[in-house]
What we know:
Elements: H1 3-26, H2 31-42, H3 53-74, H4 77-82, H5 84-108, H6 113-124, H7 128-137, H8 144-170, H9 177-211, H10 215-235, H11 240-252, H12 257-282, H13 286-290, H14 292-316, H15 321-330, H16 336-347, H17 353-385, H18 390-394, E1 413-416, H19 420-432, E2 436-440, H20 443-451, E3 456-458, H21 464-469, E4 477-480, H22 485-498, E5 503-508, H23 514-519, E6 524-527, H24 528-543, H25 548-562, E7 587-592, H26 604-607, E8 615-620, E9 626-627, E10 641-646, H27 648-654
Parallel strand pairs: 1-2, 1-4, 2-3, 4-5, 5-6
Antiparallel strand pairs: 7-10, 8-9, 8-10
Helix pairs in contact: 1-2, 2-12, 3-11, 3-12, 5-6, 5-8, 5-14, 6-8, 6-16, 7-8, 8-15, 8-16, 9-10, 9-11, 10-11, 14-15, 14-17, 15-17, 24-25
Amino acid sequence: MTEAHFLQDLLLIFGLGVLVVVAFHRARLPPIVGFLVTGLLCGPFGFGLVDGVEHVEAMAEIGVILLLFTVGIEFSVEELSRVRTFLLTGGALQVSLTLGATTAAAMGFGVRLPVAVFLGMLVALSSTAIVIRMLADHNELDAPHGRAAIGILIFQDLIVVPMVLVTPFLGGAGGDVSDLLLVIGKAGLFIALAVVAARWVVPWLLHIVVDTRKREVFLLTIVLICIGMAVASAQVGLSMALGAFIAGLILSESEYSHQALGEVLPLREVFNSLFFVSIGMLFNIRIVLEHPALIIGALLAVVLVKTVVTSGLVMLLGHPLRIALMTGVLTSQIGEFSFVLSKIGTQAGLLDGQLTQGFIAVAVGSMMLTPLLAKLAPRVSARIERWLPGTYVRGRAVTVTVRGELPPLDDHVIIVGYGVNGRNLARMLGRVGIPFIVLEMNPDAVRTERKRGRPIMYGDATRPEILKLARIDRARVLVLAISDAGATRSAVDLARRLNRELHIVVRSRYVQEVAALRAVGTDEVVPEEFETSIEISSRVLRRYLVPRDVIERLIREVRSDSYEMLRTMSDTHSPAAGFDRFLADLSLEVYRVERNCTIAGMTLADCGLREQSVSVVAIQRRDTTMRSTPTGDDRLEEGDAVLLLGPPEKLTGVASMFRGE
């Protein structure tokens, strides 16, 4: 094949790939499925548009190497610590049970034991790329089911390495036990040398390269380390994928790991897309047409077994049915590493042509089903919950705190989610003496914070018994600061039914979510996307010495144009804002008289507030005494908290009078 012909094939693959992936994106299907379909269309079993399949497969091998290389870079002890329960227990049991169930089922159909075990290995793995992409798109990486899925996926990514080592022996190409031990010994020696390289050679080399301040030299060095380790691994009889993974591990401990990952990711995406295209080229659609019942039955069996096994394990670890089922559905497909493993199995003689075709058909089908099943999971769990005991519905990760162990709760704040927003709010409430209780779905965080004396308990805010235990009937405010959009809407709807007078504040990620959250009963929605833009604008204006009152006026105008529920700056919100609905075109705000401000020491008659159409409703002194009906002779003293009534723009205008120089 001439170079021009090969470039034409690449042009055709990339052009068709763009069209298919865009179409699949609009149908909300993963890009991986789009690349597989691209390979099907242009491969020998499709329209035969590409002749040089072997050249595409050669480039696809680079994609596999880069894929495992980046997995090694992203591997970190900190990430493992966050999901250690799901990784060490959930991941190991999920792989073992799925492998065992698949092996038993395959042997029941007359498949030889080595082939059945290998099929179990293929089915046990799920798609890290698809799951992470779906969680990120829905801002659910830190949600309970997101953490559970990530923990299981990390274990699967790691178990691929020993699976790659074992596969040749299942095919009879690896010899006896002594040969296996020899391979393990080689792997140990190779890893020991890699540790030496990680400790001394690679840091020294990268330091020299970085000093050149040449980006292209840095990129070439990273690729050199990746491919060099892969080739060295192959030279000692191990797989190139294992060498690439170890190279990634070496770089993960380097201070340049993030830059290395950023440089390699574009290359990985290009070559990785070719890998999935090459897999699609091997897929013969006729196998589905000739054996539709077998393929569909195998597909449903794989999805059902993986969902049931993973959901059962997550529930066994003490989490509610809703979280367990969503985790099970997310990991119910066959993953991209299964394709990598299948090629090694084919070379070892474990898979023939027909079995390979059947595996590819089931794998592609499971990937396409995942987004649909993820949407149905919350509704399915809601139906199943009606028939299960309350213990399984609530979850048992932490013994639910009984009423006698809770602090006295009355006129309090319920905080759902103990991330950055929840922690900061809890800290502020604690400092001003406002009672609160935190509901959190991370059992490790609950145990740690309870030891520190924080009023926190494990519980799912979508469950009425949990909200009742948090005394929602006596609460004044509910704050939802979680990453699960579906759970947020369910919790708001439930909380509104349990307490009609409750003031509900929700943190959302995007402005587009505001309308849906308001529709289910939310009083205030704070979109991170919008508030971040306002904060950035504010800081830029301050850098140009724009007066604060002008900045506040501009922010007020932006907010009033964008959505009505957020009208004033976040630092001037007060509990009195709840009276806005009763006062047409007026607002209540609390300002504190700061040291050296213009009105400190002045009487109400002399300070000029009334001339600004602003009335003083009450004054709270520093000794907590309250002047509820102040007169013109009352003097404003440093530290006083002043309750003001007036139009929002007037209140913003007089704010500078209360600030110190």
